[in-house]
Design brief:
single chain; mainly beta; 12% helix; globular
Length: 128
């Protein structure tokens, strides 16, 4: 099931790249530091996604990020990918505040970070 999430991530990335921009750039996959297995996000306090940007190349294919929510191996828990938790931020900033939808229920989740490449977090917990 996790492969389904990764496949969707890669397909979304491929679809977002204009053919005219196909030049010699590096694809970079930043490591998601938060959320991780120990992370507990609260529905009452908007959380942050934090990534490790220390090893980015000088030229990347796409620096604009998008954050998607995964629950029970389903992308975006009832939200289509065109309604992300955060979007349009610079992935080189290292963090972004995410906005959990009101329909989010407590449970185990993952985050998919789209930008230069697709990357998923470890499973983490969301509580009320």
């Amino acid at each position: 099931m996790i492969w389904t999430t990764r496949l969707i991530s890669l397909l979304a990335l491929a679809a977002s790249l204009p053919i005219s921009e196909a030049k010699n750039l590096d694809v970079w996959v930043p490591t998601i530091k938060i959320p991780n297995r120990e992370t507990v996000w609260s529905l009452k306090n908007p959380p942050y996604l934090v990534e490790d940007t220390s090893n980015h190349p000088s030229e990347i294919t796409n620096s604009k990020g998008q954050v998607l929510l995964v629950h029970d191996n389903r992308l975006d828990y009832g939200r289509p990918p065109d309604h992300p938790l955060a979007e349009g931020f610079d992935i080189l900033d290292g963090q972004v505040k995410v906005h959990l939808p009101a329909s989010t229920k407590p449970g185990k989740y993952e985050i998919v970070l789209m930008g230069d490449s697709g990357n998923d977090s470890s499973e983490f917990t969301i509580v009320e």
